[in-house]
Known about the structure:
two-stranded antiparallel ribbon, 2 strands, 64% helix, 3% strand
Amino acid sequence: MSEGPDVAAAVRRGVRLFNRGRYFTAQQLFEETWQATTGSERGFLEALVQLAAGMHLRTRRGATQGAEHLLVRALITFEDWKPAAYEVDVERLTVEFDAYVEWLRAVKRPHRLLDRLRIPRLHVR
């Protein structure tokens, strides 16, 4: 019988990828870990998948509505993981990405290069 994935290591690696703007690669890593996991951490991993997918849609595909939808779904799930999970500062994540989603709703335009300065990073505790 094989052990499940090292969720903590996958989250750390995914956070590094996410913070480098490699949202699609982070999404793939989070998703692979989510699929291989059967425990309660699945919800947290699913929210990370949605967050990374939303940022990929926003920054690489120009799909602002789809991005907003995924980001909001992730934020709802992250509420259950406050204040922190797997060393990720979920409290800070939700505050900063709530503000980012509000900004997206206000600007109502495709991603621009300088918009990357507004994208929150994932912080670890």
